[in-house]
Amino acid sequence: MTIHYLKNYVRYLFCSRHWRGYGIHSPFVFELVTKVIEEKLPYYKYGLVEKVRKIYQTSSKSLSLDGEEVKVSSLVKRLSMDPSHAQVMFRLVNKFKPKNVVETGMGLGITTMYLAAPDSKLNVVTIERRKVLAEFASSYVRKAGFRNVKVEEGDPLERLPKVLDAMESLDFLYMGDCREAEDVEKRLDICLPKMGEQSVLVVCGIYENESMTEAWRRIQALDKVRVTLDLFKYGIAVFDGKLQKEDYYLRYFPDFHI
């Protein structure tokens, strides 16, 4: 962990607000926080995805990443959101009902499955630059029965234009693999023309370093972005011209895992 991360985490612990909707005056945001982000209903699809996670956690298999043999059981923690936060992605998709979802950074496919689970008619495209991960994760996505996921292997900057050409609109964009502001901004330059008033953007690692935090601040300042929710581990940006422009520093400490 960097000093930047630790400093901001302490700030988050003491300064984050709006826990369970407290102090939120916007009806839209209040409902989003209380009935989506904080929702406790255990959707049955959670169990399906968590079975895959358990398979990974007990696997003795190793994958060759960047010239190093790494156990799948250790990769699942490094590359996957924990259940409570990954399930927020499911609920966001369930709430906004996008037609097209794009994910950059498939990892082991846990978040991919949560993004695809709300509706089998969803068109979910995930881009993973590391071939070994793309092949390994896609096999488990298929075994779990997700037929609405298409896996693209390669550099997101090279793959995104072709992926977006096949879509009328980009309704939900999840960026889980960015490490620098440049990564975020170059991808957004490609994606923003396809993102309209019903689009949602999620960016992970917004406090991993100063560069990512600056990228998040620039997203908050975009004219198209009307509401942002900072949950520390990731930021959620809602594109809806009917909403008043506001930024929320949301206190979110889920107290249980499914």
List the helices and strands and how they pair.
Blueprint (H helix, E strand, L loop, with lengths): L2 H13 L11 H11 L6 H14 L4 E4 L2 E4 H8 L3 H14 L3 E5 L5 H7 L6 E6 L2 H13 L5 E5 L2 H10 L6 E4 L5 H11 L8 E5 L5 H12 L5 E4 L3 E5 L7 E4 L9
Helix pairs in contact: 5-6, 8-9, 9-10
Label this structure with key terms.
alpha/beta; Rossmann fold; two-stranded antiparallel sheet; 18% strand
Short recap of the structure:
This protein is an alpha/beta fold. It has ten helices and ten strands.
Please provide a written account of the structure:
This protein has 258 residues and is α/β, with parallel strands linked by helices. The protein has one domain (3-50, 82-249): Vaccinia Virus protein VP39 (Rossmann fold), CATH 3.40.50. Helices cover 44% and strands 18% of the residues. The chain is built from ten helices and ten strands. It has helices at 3-15, 27-37, 44-57, 72-79, 83-96, 110-116, 131-143, 156-165, 181-191, 210-221; strands at 62-65, 68-71, 100-104, 123-128, 149-153, 172-175, 200-204, 227-230, 234-238, 246-249. The strands form two sheets. Strands 5-4-3-6-7-9-8-10 form an eight-stranded mixed β-sheet, with helices on both faces. A two-stranded antiparallel ribbon has the order 1-2. Strand 3, helix 6 and strand 4 form a beta-alpha-beta unit.
